[in-house]
Amino acid sequence: MSATHDVISPVDETVLATVPRADPAAVDEVVGRARAAFPGWRAIAPGERAELLRAFARAVHDDRERLAGIEVRNSGHTIANARWEAGNVRDVLHYFSAGPERLLGAQIPVPGGVDITFREPIGVVGVIVPWNFPMPIAAWGFAPALAAGNCVVLKPAELTPLTALRLAEVAHLAGIPEGVFQVLTGSGAEAGEALVRHVDVGKIVFTGSTEVGRHVLGLAAHQIKPVTCELGGKNANIVFADADLAAAAASAPGAAFDNAGQDCCARSRLLVQRPVLDRFMELLEPAVAAFRCGDPADPSVSMGPLISAAHRAGVASYLDDTVAVAYRGEAPDGPGFWFPPTVLEPGGPTARHWREEIFGPVVSVVAFDDEADALRLANEGPYGLSGSLWTRDLGRAFRMVRGWDSGTLSVNSHSSVRYWTPFGGVKQSGLGRELGPDALEAFTEVKNVFIATGE
Ligand code: NAD
User: Fold this and answer.
1) Any idea what DSSP says for residue 148?
2) Ligand 1 pocket, 141 CB below 6 A?
3) CA of 207 to the centre of ligand 1 (A)
4) Residue 248, CA distances (Å) to 240, 245, 273, 357, 424 in order
5) Is the pLDDT of residue 454 over 90?
6) In this predicted structure, what is the pLDDT of residue 1?
């Protein structure tokens, strides 16, 4: 009998479920089923595959309250966020369900014949997901992979497997054939690594830390296996003196503390132009106080707990005696891995909390002088995932976004993700893009065929 592990709720520390812990033999079995299902799935007529994905989307829609409820308990997400996340899975499936009939090849003019290209599915795709957004991140991988005619093995994070397991049931109820979409629970070191190493897995979509992403890329390199990587971030929120300061201050807590700051796109580095620094800090304080941390099932709450005791200890380690807190929101005591929204006193750009991804509700603040200074600070460090910029000067906005080494930026807004626009990072934040019009192609191989017609 294979081993199991307990799934703990970060809200009250109760055991929610016990799930299998796949070993390499179990991974081999699951990949074998996917491999066996592949010829049938790729052969399904495009319109029928599209209809099956739409049926999957409808089934997710019908199940969204249940899925959201599971995520509130398993991940500590607020109920509003969890409902959005289940809806995002539906929307991503629906968006990519338009893919099968639109996987176009090219016809290239050549002498002596006809040259055409086909976009072939890769085969079995492994999708490895972190614990911070279990549902959407899974769907960003599995929806385009399935649409392009691949079979998927989804490996959720050890801490948060429950919505993935429910999604596999929902897919089955919607008529997705056996073996086409499977979920494999287990640890990263064992199940995740066995999936990456498996010779019958043709592509890996990895979302997680830069450290593990680097390791996964190294493993995949042995088989020249393509990998899409969405990794860490340490994103800047840059506020110029000419900005709508009230709007920038009102939105800054959400940008940094949503999902308790456990967001690769969290704007955890706040850069404020020096002449308005004091005013901005005054405006920010009430907005932080209003960002309530508490029971995520309560619809009036803005953020829930951190994911685990170990992660809370890691976040707390950034706030040693040398670090001054400007202000802090409130958080419950008692069971659950609570940590209050925290804004640090403005300081220099060398502190550990400024440089490293904390992945918790902690914002560092640094003053800057001009555009060049802001850009230099924003571009420092190994990451380049997302960022926001607040200004009323359109020319400045364009100069800044063009010079900023980042994959996903917003001006006078903090939006990062829309399922129909590309998402991903540069530098050590990632490799490749998810979502948007081009994502489908990343799940295909181009095949070129020349047919001689005679001169
Ligand atoms: P993690 O890297 O520890 O784990 C991510 C996944 O990889 C998990 O499923 C884990 O089981 C698996 N894994 C671990 N070791 C493995 C191995 N040796 N081989 C194969 N798989 C392995 O990350 P986490 O702690 O779950 O998530 C937090 C990190 O994810 C943060 O750094 C965050 O920035 C990043 N993240 C990035 C994005 C993005 O889109 N750029 C989105 C969300 C999270």
Assistant:
1) T
2) no
3) 5
4) 10, 5, 13, 22, 24
5) no
6) 43
Ligand 1 binding pocket includes 433 (Cβ within 6 Å): no
Query: If you average pLDDT over residues 372-394, what whole number do you get?
Result: 98
Residue from 352, 351, 333, 330 nearest 341 by CA: 330
Q: Is the pLDDT of residue 140 over 60?
A: yes
Distance of CA 90 to the CA centre of its chain: 16
Rounded CA separation 194/451 (Å): 41
For residues 28-60, one letter each, b for 16 or more C-beta atoms within 10 angstroms of the residue's C-beta and e for the rest, the string is eebbebbbebbeebeebeeeebbebbebbbebb
The predicted-structure confidence for 44-103, as pLDDT tens digits, reads as follows: 999 999 999 999 999 999 999 999 999 999 999 999 999 999 999 999 999 999 999 999
Q: Which residues make beta-bridge pairs with 339?
A: none
* Amino acid letter for position 370: D
Residue 371 bears catalytic tag:
no
Of 85, 158, 230, 434, the catalytic one is 230
Structural domains of the chain ordered from first start:
4-231+428-452 (3.40.605.10), 236-418 (3.40.309.10)
Is residue 232 lining ligand 1, measured as CB closer than 6 Å? yes
151 in active site: no
What's the angle, vertex CA 426, arms to CA 421 and CA 427, rounded to 5?
170
Nearest CA residue ID for atom 42, ligand 1: 264
- Give alpha helix (H) positions in 367-425: 371-379, 394-403
First to last CA, the chain: 66
Cβ(196) – ligand 1 distance below 6 Å:
yes
Q: Which of 391, 395, 385 is nearest to 425 (CA)?
A: 385
Q: How many helical (H) and strand (E) elements, i.e. helices and strands, does the chain have?
A: 14, 18
Residue identified by tokens 């042995």 is 222
CA of 215 to the centre of ligand 1 (A): 11
Question: Which tokens belong to 446?
Answer: 């181009």
Tell me which residue of 280, 287, 360 sits closest to 319, measured CA to CA. 360
